[in-house]
Task: inverse folding
């Protein structure tokens, strides 16, 4: 890690030992729940990579190593808040209540995977954003609308460290500060912008320093410590809901996998660096703390892993059973209202499909 441990907000050291008293909300049942969440999303991640390797999923961005950030984000947001995710945010979306098969559907190339709902109830969260940093501008618009509408709601947007070099990001934090809107930025500083290491992206010691120019608070947090992550996020969201403005959180983590399944990180980073990063990873750290409190055992681990595999396999079965989209779906999910020239093109696709299927369609 490029950031000194002493400079980060954290409760657990790398061995899972307490550095300071736990916050009031951090009781053992809550932390056990966080641990279960992280283990489940890691089992899911391994399965998703395997599905891509066997041709059942498209290019997939692993979240291996950032589980603490995602679960903290997802659990900290209220249902009536708005989450604006980037592409490595499956854990947060799952914690928000989005079904696993929806995530698989999206990465399988089916935009119906972006039709989110909380337990069949519509939600206001935005779909995944793959273009780098553009979701930050969307989040500013969302938060500005929340402010105009009134009420005690907030928006939260995530991005990677590479996104902080983009104009979209810098314009967004500038507007957030100038307009005093209820928005929380969370940077997943996983040390790599694809193959560009953090030290070559920016001369600042902390990415959170970029908040100074925008006139908003900037905080650096140990992104592998879910207790610290959740604590800072709930405080920042509370501040936003009370009308006190935006906050920028830099969550220091490490990308343990490739950038995506189309990448080979061994071409640009050393095995020694990767093995060192595995010593800091979030799942291992929280488990060590729970074990030290006699709040987790190997029997618990075996039982939960078996449950996780069952949950994930059932989600995969539901995903694989989804009927494919009709050809004309290529025209859907582009505009709220189709343009005039799209109608005849769509009709032509439908007619061609009917001819190929002997007059049957749908």
Result:
């Amino acid at each position: 890690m490029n950031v000194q441990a002493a400079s980060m907000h954290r409760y657990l050291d790398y061995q899972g030992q307490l550095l300071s008293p736990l916050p009031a909300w951090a009781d053992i049942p809550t932390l056990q729940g966080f641990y279960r969440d992280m283990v489940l999303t890691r089992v899911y991640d391994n399965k998703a990579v395997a599905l891509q390797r066997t041709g059942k999923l498209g290019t997939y961005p692993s979240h291996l190593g950032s589980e603490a950030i995602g679960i903290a984000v997802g659990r900290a947001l209220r249902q009536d808040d708005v989450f604006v995710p980037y592409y490595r945010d499956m854990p947060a979306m799952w914690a928000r209540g989005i079904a696993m098969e929806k995530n698989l559907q999206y990465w399988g190339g089916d935009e119906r995977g972006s039709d989110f709902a909380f337990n069949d109830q519509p939600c206001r969260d935005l779909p995944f954003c793959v273009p780098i940093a553009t979701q930050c501008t969307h989040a500013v618009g969302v938060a500005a609308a929340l402010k105009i509408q009134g009420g005690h709601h907030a928006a939260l947007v995530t991005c990677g460290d590479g996104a902080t070099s983009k104009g979209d990001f810098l314009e967004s934090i500038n507007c957030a500060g100038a307009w005093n809107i209820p928005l929380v930025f969370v940077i997943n500083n996983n040390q790599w912008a694809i193959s560009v290491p953090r030290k070559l992206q920016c001369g600042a010691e902390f990415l959170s320093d970029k908040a100074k120019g925008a006139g908003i608070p900037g905080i650096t947090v140990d992104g592998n410590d879910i207790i610290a992550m959740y604590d800072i996020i709930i405080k920042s969201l509370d501040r936003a809901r009370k009308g006190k403005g935006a906050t920028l959180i830099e969550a220091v983590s490490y990308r343990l996998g490739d950038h995506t399944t189309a990448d080979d990180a061994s071409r640009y980073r050393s095995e020694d660096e990767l093995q060192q990063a595995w010593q800091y990873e979030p799942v291992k750290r929280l488990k060590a703390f729970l074990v030290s409190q006699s709040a987790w055992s190997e029997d618990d681990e075996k039982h939960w892993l078996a449950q996780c595999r069952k949950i994930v396999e059932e989600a995969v079965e539901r995903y694989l059973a989804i009927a494919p989209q009709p050809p004309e779906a290529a025209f859907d999910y582009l505009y709220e209202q189709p343009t005039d020239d799209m109608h005849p093109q769509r009709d032509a696709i439908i007619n061609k499909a009917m001819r190929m299927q002997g007059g049957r369609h749908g």
